[in-house]
Design brief:
The complex is a heterodimer of chains A (374) and B (620).
Chain A: E1 11-22, E2 28-29, E3 36-37, E4 42-48, E5 52-56, H1 57-61, H2 68-71, E6 79-80, E7 85-91, E8 96-101, E9 106-111, E10 117-121, E11 125-130, E12 135-141, E13 145-156, E14 159-161, E15 165-171, E16 179-180, E17 192-195, E18 199-200, H3 202-211, E19 215-221, H4 223-230, E20 247-254, H5 261-269, E21 274-278, E22 291-295, H6 304-310, E23 318-321, E24 330-335, E25 341-342, E26 348-349, E27 351-356, E28 361-365, E29 369-373
Parallel strand pairs in A: 15-17, 16-18, 17-19, 19-20
Antiparallel strand pairs in A: 1-13, 2-4, 3-12, 4-11, 5-10, 6-9, 7-8, 9-10, 12-13, 13-22, 14-20, 15-21, 21-22, 23-24, 23-29, 24-27, 25-26, 27-28
Chain B: E1 16-22, E2 26-35, E3 38-48, H1 58-73, E4 78-79, E5 82-83, E6 96-101, E7 107-113, H2 119-129, E8 132-139, H3 146-155, E9 160-163, H4 173-185, E10 198-201, H5 208-215, E11 220-223, H6 237-254, H7 258-264, E12 270-271, H8 272-287, E13 290-296, E14 301-307, E15 310-316, H9 325-332, H10 334-338, H11 347-359, H12 368-392, H13 405-410, E16 424-430, H14 432-435, H15 440-451, E17 455-462, H16 467-474, H17 478-489, E18 490-498, E19 511-519, E20 522-529, E21 533-536, E22 543-550, E23 564-569, E24 575-578, H18 590-604, H19 609-618
Parallel strand pairs in B: 1-6, 6-12, 7-8, 7-9, 9-10, 10-11, 13-16, 16-17, 18-24
Antiparallel strand pairs in B: 1-2, 2-3, 4-5, 13-14, 14-15, 17-18, 19-20, 19-22, 21-24, 22-23
Helix pairs in contact in B: 2-6, 3-4, 4-5, 8-16, 8-17, 9-12, 12-15, 16-17, 18-19
Amino acid sequence: MAHAYTPGLKVTEKAVIRKTRRLPILGEVLVEKGQKVSPSTVVARTSIPGNPQTVNIANILGVEAEDVVEYMQKKEGDYVHQGEILAQYSSFFGLFKREARSPVEGTIEMISKVTGQVTLREPPIPVEVDAYIEGVVEEVLPKEGVVVVTEGAFIQGIFGVGGETNGVVRVAVESPSDVLEASHIKSDDADKVLVGGSLVTADAIKKAGEVGARGIVVGGIVDHDLIEYLGFDIGVAITGHEDVPVTVIITEGFGQMRMADRTFSLLQKISGLKACINGATQIRAGVMRPEIIVPGYQTSSSGAADEDLAQGLVVGTAIRIIREPYFGLLAEVVELPPELQVIESESKVRILKAKLEDGTIVTVPRANVEIIEA
Amino acid sequence: MQEEKTAFTPDTEINTVLATDCGSTTTKAILIEKVEDEYRLIVRGEAPTTVEAPFEDVTMGARNAIREIEELTGRRFLSDTGVITPRQPDGSGADIFMSTSSAGGGLQMMVAGVVKTMTAESAARAALGAGAIVMDVISVDDGRKPHEKIQRIRHLRPDMILLSGGIDGGTITHVVEIAELISAAEPKPRLGIGYKLPIIYAGNKHARKHIEEILSEKTDLRVVDNLRPVLEREVLGPAREAIHNLFMEHVMAQAPGYNKLMSWTAVPIMPTPGAVGNCMQTAAKEYDMSVIGVDIGGATTDVFSVFGDFFNRTVSANLGMSYSICNVLLEAGMANISRWIPFSIDEADLRNRIRNKMIRPTTIPQTLDDLILEQGIAREALRLAFVHHKSLAVGLRGVHKERTIGDTFEQSGSGDTYIDMADLGMLIGSGGTLSHAPRRAQAAMMLLDAFQPEAETMLAVDSIFMMPQLGILASVHPKAAMQVFDRDCLVKLGTSIAPIGPSGNLQFGEPCVTVTIDLNGETIEESVPYGSMKVIKIPENVTVDAVIHPTRQFDVGKGHGRVVESKVNGGVVGVVIDCRGRPLALPDDPTLRSQKLLEWFIAMDMYPADLLKKYADKGI
């Protein structure tokens, strides 16, 4: 049987991280296996066919579609400039003239005798893929891209907006309970990744954008503030392509939520180092969570915490409860009864008993907890 | 060893069936066997789907699910190279193995036609019926400029495009224009970098030559019969068949491990929703009644309807209970969700809760408050999905219809929905929210509130979601599929009796209907006033004679005030008399609404009565 709990997000000082960097269509790979790359190294390049434009010559000239070819001044394959005459019609010894001009610069791809349309293709659009993280090319995928590998610190968030970027980490608050406010953000925070505690305010996000910060990592965000920042509401959990100045990654959830100590303390350790971050989130098969990667981070600890996480839930495991009525509270597992039990909603589920920070013992479905630290 | 599958012919005797459904998260296997003269579900097994990294081989998940069946039965079904078929003298193996799949995002299509409400709509119906998610519908008159359409085609990366347009012998210009747009966009398929995008042309046959000239080099073009050869007729079969073939050849063949899985199966793998549609159609035929089915998932809600010769499926791609739950909030609005909740809740709190469910979709409601909230959201997701369905489940538009003077007053011309809730025989609910509701009465109430069935309707839920496997089985052995469907798949909740009306102004509490039932010689008579509900406990698989006598402002199928004598079916909930009005009347006043909700919850025995007391004490 699969684990009856949410496995939790990866927060580790030492991980081997692989990133596949792939072109949208076939192209040219620009790096070799074993080559060192930085986040901005272009690893593959291609050009996608330029934007097509259609011009209905028959309509413009007022002629039959099948006769369009007669009036064309250009033929298929010709290169035309914006405003250049494509087709011309004149009658009464040139007294009445009509002409169709090219709306763009490009090549004539097709002249249709059926619709009287001309398809123009604008110049090809170059597409480049960068390495995103600092590392070594582990594998070349011929004509498609590469796999870049690195070792370092790795933190997953629960939800994010905004795409790939990088910057030096600065922890802007004192503790994981603190709210990241506009006053915490300084004028020299340009290009930085700022770390807050339990919440980020709408003003703080705004100010981060104004000073040119690259990212914000924080425990929680209020639903309304997120909508205000994006300018639209998110209906479906698929993000990463928003056109926003600052990538925002939340580590715990919506509402004010104290950041897990383990996450906050690792973010403190990597303060001053360059992190590569991505807010892209996709919650369905092939779950994708937002991430913070610090390539090359050297840890002094042994990584035992990760082994403990791999054990799953045992008595003593520190957990966070992720659903009402104890949403967001931290606790420690005190009992794991194997048999199914009926909870208040009358669902029959596997439960656990946990001790909250104030000492109260509560019963919670195992599906409603996640492991947060060893 | 019997590793290789044997050829399946219609004459093959089938006593043991093994079937899997490879869903996006879970692969479910079922074992069906002939027990005496009946086909029955024997056991089921499930395992996580293994299409994604690090496994990237769908057969691993299928093997794991089948292994559970092996453990439960103590018999062997797997060999080193696949499923053992046919069944062997030593008891190992199955007579036939088959599979459905929606893993890896299912089948994603784009359709195009000339006129939005005619050929483009027919193309959308063909694609949806074949089990696809329709990403966009492009037509000449869709209001977008040519460059916007081209950008859209470029941006989406569908698995295939279905292009239709024009009746045979009609104008060819418009369909060629759409083909030119597709050609200009140079669309790429979602899977298989470097492959050509499959395009099915099912339009005016006189335009084929031009379509081939424009598209055959750039795309993988297939030409089939026109799906709208004349305005008055829709012929979707050839297009649907081509979609299924391309699904196998292109989509499945690109997905990790599917080539291996295909080599195990005796019949082609079907897209999961296509198989469910097949199951619904077979059920409608078998029961000889109109059927509506709904499957509410985490990301999407599928609605199927079979009314006479009409079959339709729609996918509301962004109405679901986890991945797209925030979209339900967005589309329904806060007021529509809160009208199902008998207590007050801070809007900001509710919004954060819904968002947290989205980002942690595997959590379950622990408290009654949370359960009621989640079921309130589900009602709205179901309601919106049904509204969407009705807008597509329409007669052919653009058909000239002769009208008499009498028709002038009726205004039910072509293009209207053919869904008639008073004619609906069975309403089937499926998906975790409905199938796993802690009490069956909750599922019954969600169906009643969202769909508002009228007069008499059988309510049911799919117990363990095996309709996909039964749908594909129905394509080779309908009898076996229907026996299992009736006995092991459906949980019959009971008949609902919902009078249509009132026809004028009426206050809650005034008389609505009297139902007299004869149960084993005992006469049960219930008079239920307008605005109330009542359940008569009649067990599952028991059919009783009933006399339904509505007051003159209500109609139970034969006209206002007309008595209906019929047979009604019991179920795990019972016979539900729903006198809340059709259309359903919810009081506008929050306090009164809360009182009525609690009254209905208690009448239906939906939630623990002692816990409901707290809402009554607190008020809204």
